[in-house]
Amino acid sequence: MRRVHYVEKKRRAKDGLLLKTRTRSDCLNMVGPARTTEKGSRQSAGGLHPIAHMALNELAAGDIREAYDAAAKRSVRRAAYAMQVLRAVLRWHGVDVPDNPLGRETAGRDRITIRAPHGDPSPILPKMPGAWWRAARIAPSQVAAVYDRFQLLTGCRVIEIHGHKLHGYPPITVGDIDQRGGRAGLRDTKNRRDHKLLLSTQVLETAKRNCVWRKTEKPLSPVVDARKTLAWINAKAGTNVQGHGLRATFASVAEELESSASFKRMMDGAIDGDVTLGHYVAKSEAQLRAGWQAVADFVGQAAKQH
């Protein structure tokens, strides 16, 4: 119950906001048992399930170590995440576990080392965006292809485009598009703030077509899963990019073309801990719009080169 209390009541130190729905779900799944989903797939027990039945003040260092070792046999990364959650729960409740292997005061030889996660960006290779774009323009399902092209030219996260009801992410809707101003608003993103997209002329053109005769509350893109179309595009273009890789492609291009200050803001990067960016470096809407336009023009120009 105390774990549930943490999930429901914990607030982020930097902004006082409750945890995102997806984060709460991840935490609860860590203490859950093995189960079979509605679609029949088998899911393993959470990394903290072996100690989920124990009261926090009953935990011993050995219990934590055993839970970590068991989880690490399946995935070191997931085991580390489970330990991060456990450490946060213990601190939030003020529980002191003697010789805690997650504690700073514990000798290094006896401590569980939680390494920072490393991303695995898999963008379209530098010489291939043009081929990918040409293939996307002739894909059999243009509705799905527009979805993929929108992500490539805006750098949005996949979940920000189509949303996720279970995790509380709203999709981009027709009403979120400011056609006259060439903007789109993303609400309560991963970084717990609203994010403004300044649409390139190429993106705005397709967004306007998706808005015609559709109600404001409807998702901008009626496609939730564009993987089949993306697979077709990859086969045609000789690429191997997946959904998140389109965001990585946008980032790879934008990082070369724009300043770090513009780049971070375009990517909706966290700048709260960056004193220089957060307090001294301002970027106008015109400067940021030029950044998005530069990426779109780069890809468009590459598509013209055979």
Q: How is the topology of this model organized?
A:
Layout: H1 2-9, H2 21-30, E1 35-36, E2 42-43, H3 61-72, H4 76-93, H5 129-137, H6 142-154, H7 158-162, E3 177-178, E4 183-186, E5 195-198, H8 201-211, H9 227-237, H10 243-257, H11 260-266, H12 275-279, H13 285-303
Antiparallel strand pairs: 1-2, 3-4, 4-5
Kindly summarize this structure in a few lines.
The protein has 306 residues and is mostly helical.
Number of helices: 13
End-to-end separation in angstroms reads 61 Å
Please name the CATH topology of the largest domain. hpI Integrase, Chain A
Net shape: elongated
Structural class: mainly alpha
The CATH top-level class label of the largest domain: Mainly Alpha
- What would you give as the CATH superfamily of the largest domain? Intergrase catalytic core
Q: Helical amount among residues, as a percent range? A: 40-55%
Strand content of the residues, in percent?
under 5%
Oligomer: single chain
Largest sheet: 3 strands, antiparallel
* Integer count of domains: 2
Q: Tally of extended strands?
A: 5
Poorly predicted runs: none
Give, in spatial order, the strands making up the sheet with the most strands: 3-4-5
Query: Which architecture of the largest domain would the CATH scheme give at its second level?
Result: Orthogonal Bundle
Radius of gyration over C-alpha positions, nearest whole angstrom:
22 Å
